[in-house]
Design a protein that fits this description.
By secondary structure, the chain is an alpha/beta fold. The protein has eleven helices and seven strands. The chain starts with a helix and ends with a strand.
C-alpha cells in the first residue's frame, strides 16, 4: 500500500477524526439527473462509498462503474450492489477508448497530485460527444477571498484540518476559469456551470459539526437554506463554494 492509498484508507475510515458525511445533497442529485441521460454507461471516478448520488443515478443507467483508491470506501460502495474497481487515478484507467457515455468526477480533482491525468483519461474513455461532469470547490468563493485578505487560508477539505492547511486533503485549487481551461486542453467543451453551496450551513469548518449536532445531523442541516444558495445560482464564480461543470468531448 503506497502513501496515498494509506492516507485515503484512513480518510474514509474516520481515523483522522472525521470522514466525508453520508449526506445526499438534493441539489447535487438534481443537477446530475438533469445532466445524465437515461440508459448511459457511467463511470464514477473517485466514487467513494456511493451513498451520496450513485445510489440514485444507477437506477436509470445502462451500467454504473465506480473507481476509488480506498478499499474501505469501495466496500460500502459494493454493498449498494454496484460494480467497482480498486484503482489509483494517477495511472491509466483500465478501460478501452470510448467505453463510456458519461464520466462523473465529483469532489475528486482537488485531492490529486496530477488532476490533468484524470481529465485526459476521462476524455479518452468517453465516446465522441460523451459528457464529463466534474464537481470542485471554488477557490474564488467570496468568503475565501475575505479570509485571504485577513491573512488566513483554509483548504476546506476537512473540519479537522482547520488552522492546519498542511494536513488538509485538498492539494489542488480551481476557479471556474482555470477548470474550464483544463477541460479545454483535452478537447472538452464546457456547456454548463452550476453553483452549489451544499448548502452553506453544512459546509462551514468548525461551525457545521456543531450545528449538525444540535439540529439532528447533517441530513437535516443540509435542508436549511440561506440567501447564498440563491446567489450561488446567479453568480457561481463568486458566491458558490462548489462548482459543477458539464463538458462534452468534441473529437
Amino acid at each position: 500500500m503506497n502513501l496515498i492509498s494509506k492516507y485515503y484508507e484512513e480518510y474514509w475510515s474516520g481515523k483522522h477524526g472525521w470522514r466525508p458525511p453520508n449526506v445526499l445533497y438534493p441539489d447535487t442529485v438534481g443537477v446530475l439527473k438533469a445532466w445524465v441521460p437515461a440508459s448511459s454507461r457511467i463511470l464514477d471516478l473517485g466514487c467513494g462509498d456511493g451513498k451520496t448520488y450513485a445510489q440514485s443515478l444507477h437506477t436509470t443507467a445502462r451500467h454504473y462503474t465506480g473507481i476509488d483508491i480506498s478499499m474501505t470506501a469501495l466496500s460500502d460502495f459494493r454493498k449498494l450492489g454496484l460494480d467497482s474497481i480498486f484503482h489509483d487515478l494517477s495511472t491509466q484507467l483500465p478501460f478501452e477508448d470510448q467505453s463510456f457515455d458519461v464520466v462523473i468526477c465529483i469532489e475528486v480533482l482537488e485531492h490529486l497530485f496530477a488532476p490533468a491525468i484524470v481529465v485526459a483519461e476521462a476524455a479518452r474513455v468517453l465516446t465522441p460527444g460523451g459528457v464529463l461532469i466534474i464537481g470542485i470547490p471554488n477557490a474564488a468563493f467570496f468568503l475565501d477571498r475575505l479570509r485571504l485578505l485577513a491573512g488566513r487560508f483554509e483548504a476546506g477539505g476537512s473540519p479537522t484540518s482547520v488552522g492546519r492547511p498542511w494536513e488538509d486533503p485538498h492539494i489542488r485549487f480551481f476557479t471556474e476559469r482555470s477548470a474550464k481551461k483544463l477541460l479545454r486542453t483535452y478537447n472538452l467543451a464546457t456547456e454548463s456551470v452550476v453553483g452549489l453551496d451544499h448548502p452553506m450551513l453544512a459546509a462551514l469548518p468548525i461551525v457545521s459539526p456543531f450545528l449538525a449536532k444540535f439540529t439532528g445531523g447533517y441530513k437535516r442541516l443540509s435542508k436549511i437554506k440561506t440567501p447564498l444558495d440563491h446567489l450561488a445560482r446567479v453568480y457561481p464564480r463568486l458566491f458558490s463554494r462548489h462548482l459543477m461543470i458539464r463538458a462534452r468531448r468534441t473529437t
